[in-house]
Design brief:
The protein is an alpha/beta fold and 698 residues long. The chain has an eight-stranded mixed sheet, sandwiched between helices. Strands 5-4-17-16-18-19-20 form a seven-stranded mixed sheet, with helices on both faces. The chain is globular. Bound molecules: 5'-O-[(S)-butoxy(hydroxy)phosphoryl]adenosine.
């Protein structure tokens, strides 16, 4: 690593002096010293971090054992194998009993409607988690079983996931924006025996009848003989009805929420209340099963390498991959990254806006913050509902010190100008973060100058569902920032840049971003498909974990992510595979063939531009376009809704019949610099597509 440019004054930003005083890592030299140790002596470095946690038994074998080279055998990664622990115990019991944080707020919940809120302390959370863990056990859920969770952003979601962890069951959380079909596919793939969901919720003005979508998924599962036999439903939208059961049946936080909901009842009843479909053979209400559940539940002690959860992420074949993380490594990695990257201190109020249905919500709303005894905001709503100042109003209301969001949200808010931001004080803010996609320097500078008033460093954290936590990131007080760069590797992470031949490039270079050795939070396998894990991440360049992203390293050693180099695209920070969308389109009876490419979008970063070839006898009408959009929404979910659909009587293909997406991307952008097109079988189709481009977003 060469000295950064800051001495030469070119485009480098530094943290203010106040932040350095208390920082865990106050200088670049200190970062380098710790980094060197983390890579040269991983056992000592991570062993010290592991010491802060409770281990029932210490590891018996080596601290770390791995094979990263497919040519030498099975890929395997084991950290602290043989050690036993329980992650839920470490997040809750340890904080309540050892660290005396029982009365500290774990979460401030802020609902979709301003004024709808509640809070829950560490000891209240522990009590609820124990109760729900007992409920799960009564339902027959055992260590190693899978539980599917399909819920809005409510405290019960955190309770459900930690209750699974307490009894050694694996949670598989499916983002509540996914369709019935996507939920069903995930339930079947992971053989879940139980589903936890909620009645309904509002996203802004829009009512989502979640239970109804869950029922459609369950029906589809039933047709396929799934082992799922129980559905536990939280009464969320209908919470105030619970008051009639008498206040004694309600716990203090729920009572407070009910009161706040009741005060707002007049207002909220203006909105529709859906009818909740019910099958008494399968469905039970959360509040009914919780009523008599004991508040004590002995944690089930698990091996550090036992599976903690499955989280599905898009795969380039179109079928989602069940990414599996294990307990011990994930715990120490999310804890350490949270502490150092957000420079966490006990008095912080931390807010991560991600949904728990994505990995960011797992690692940096649940596991990382709770492992550190942090106080977080759990926000149910949308950034611009009921008005464009909502985010800043929440920051002022709770005096948020550390704020973590996505570039797409920043670009959206930026559109409304500085005034809605400046209306609020934001003086509590100390560190800002971004995640999910490359941030363009304009958005970075706006975030830095307007939101943070040049006082708050920005941590641009690069990572993936697969990496479990941050792998390239600044440390806020130590790393001089360059807008748009995720800067340097986190502790224990060793990046390299490879060329097409798999040679490591030195110094200033551009190529494939890979990692050379495991860090504790790396995924361990694809659920029930280890071979897919090996081929997806380890086959292209033996000896390396391949991220699928391209990157540049500049003369100062800074890393700049240039985006995906596989058939994946990143819409608002969420990965989708082009194949997944294509198969949703061709499932329509009018479509013979479809090709989907990513296209730049001012807010979402990237969006979907679809080319469809119709079957004989079908016309490309407005109506058909609407049907196709609906089809994709139903098959995958609203995040995958196409922005452009162009009729393509023919598609540019190689002589062997491979669709040339490189050419289609250029057509979508109206960029006639096509490069070499000598391999195109029928060049006339290119001209036709250029002449019939889709100019406006649907
Ligand atoms: C892909 C992983 C990690 C949580 C959210 C997304 C892109 C993520 C950055 C960043 C540039 C980024 C990459 C990566 N990405 N963070 N700071 N700068 N690109 O998780 O759905 O697994 O997506 O998101 O392309 O591979 P994911």
């Amino acid at each position: 690593m060469v000295l950064p440019e800051e001495e030469r004054g070119g485009g480098v930003f530094r943290a203010p002096a106040e932040l350095l005083r208390e920082a865990h890592v106050p200088s670049l030299d200190k970062y380098r010293e710790l980094y060197r140790r983390s890579v040269e002596e991983p056992q000592e470095f991570w062993g010290d971090i592991a010491k802060e946690f409770y281990w029932r038994c210490r590891h018996t074998g080596p601290f770390l054992q791995y094979n990263f080279d497919v040519t030498k055998g099975k890929i395997s990664i084991e950290w602290m194998k043989g050690a036993t622990t329980n992650i839920c115990y470490n997040l809750l019991d340890r904080n309540v009993y050892e660290n005396k944080l029982g009365d500290k707020i774990a979460f401030y919940w802020e609902g979709n409607e301003p004024g709808d809120n509640m809070k829950i302390t560490y000891s209240e959370l522990l009590c609820k988690v124990c109760q729900f863990a007992n409920v799960l056990q009564e339902q027959g859920v055992k260590k190693g079983d899978r539980v599917s969770i399909y819920m809005p952003m409510i405290i019960e979601l955190v309770i459900a996931m930690l209750a699974c962890a307490r009894i050694g069951a694996l949670h598989s959380i499916v983002f509540a924006g996914f369709s019935a079909e996507s939920l069903c596919e995930r339930i079947l793939d992971s053989h879940c025996s139980l589903l936890i969901t909620a009645d309904a919720f509002y996203r802004g003005d829009k009512l989502i009848n979640l239970k109804q979508i869950a029922d459609e998924a369950l029906q589809k599962c039933k047709d396929k003989d799934a082992p799922l036999r129980r559905c536990i439903v939280v009464k969320h939208l209908g919470r105030e009805e619970l008051l009639s059961d008498g206040p004694s049946s309600q716990s203090p936080p729920l009572k407070r929420l009910c009161q706040s909901v009741q005060e707002k009842k007049a207002e909220s009843s203006k909105k529709g209340r859906p009818k909740i479909p019910w099958d008494s053979e399968v469905d039970v209400w959360w509040h009914d099963v919780m009523k008599n559940a004991s508040r004590e539940c002995e944690p089930v002690w698990c091996d550090a390498e036992d599976e903690l959860f499955i989280l599905y992420t898009s795969g380039s074949t179109g079928k989602p991959k069940g990414v599996v993380h294990t307990i011990g490594g994930y715990m120490i990695f999310t804890a350490a990254t949270f502490k150092y990257v957000f420079d966490h201190h006990p008095e912080d109020i931390y807010w991560c806006t991600a949904d728990i249905g994505w990995i960011t919500g797992h690692s940096y709303l649940t596991y990382g913050p709770l492992a550190n005894g942090a106080t977080s905001i759990l926000f149910e709503g949308l950034p611009i509902y009921p008005d464009v100042g909502r985010m800043w109003s929440i920051i002022d209301k709770y005096k948020v010190t550390k704020f973590y969001t996505a570039p797409t949200a920043i670009r959206l808010l930026m559109k409304y100008g500085d005034e809605p931001v400046r209306k609020y004080s934001r003086k509590s803010l100390k560190v800002l973060g971004t995640v999910g996609e490359p941030i363009n320097p304009e958005a970075w500078l706006w975030y830095y100058r307007v939101v943070g008033e040049e006082r708050c460093p920005i941590v641009d954290t690069f990572w993936q569902t697969e990496t479990g936590g941050h792998v390239l990131t600044p440390l806020p007080a130590a790393t001089p920032m360059k807008p748009g760069s995720a800067t340097f590797p986190f502790f224990g992470v060793v990046p390299a840049v490879l060329d097409e031949a798999g040679e490591e490039l030195e110094g200033e270079a551009e190529g494939y971003l890979v990692f050379k050795q495991p860090w504790p939070g790396i995924m361990r396998t694809v659920y029930k498909n280890h071979q897919r894990f090996e081929t997806t991440y380890f086959k292209k360049f033996p000896g390396y974990y391949v991220t699928g992203d391209g990157c540049k390293r500049d003369k100062d050693g800074y890393y700049w992510i240039t985006g995906r180099i596989d058939d994946m695209l990143n819409v608002s920070g969420h990965l989708l595979s082009t194949a997944e969308v294509e198969s949703a389109l061709v499932a329509h009876s009018a479509v013979a063939e479809a090709a989907v490419v990513s296209h730049p979008h001012p807010v979402k970063g990237e969006c979907l531009y679809c080319f469809v070839t119709l079957r004989d006898g079908h016309d490309f009408t407005k109506n058909l376009m609407e049907e196709l959009k609906k089809q994709v929404r139903e098959k995958i979910g609203p995040i995958a809704t196409p922005d452009y659909i162009q009729h393509a009587p023919g598609l540019p293909k190689t002589r062997s019949g491979k669709i040339m997406r490189r050419v289609l991307r250029k057509i979508a952008k109206n960029d006639r610099e096509l490069g070499d097109t000598s391999t195109v079988a029928d060049p006339a189709v290119i001209n036709h597509l250029f002449n019939n481009r889709c100019e406006t977003i649907l």
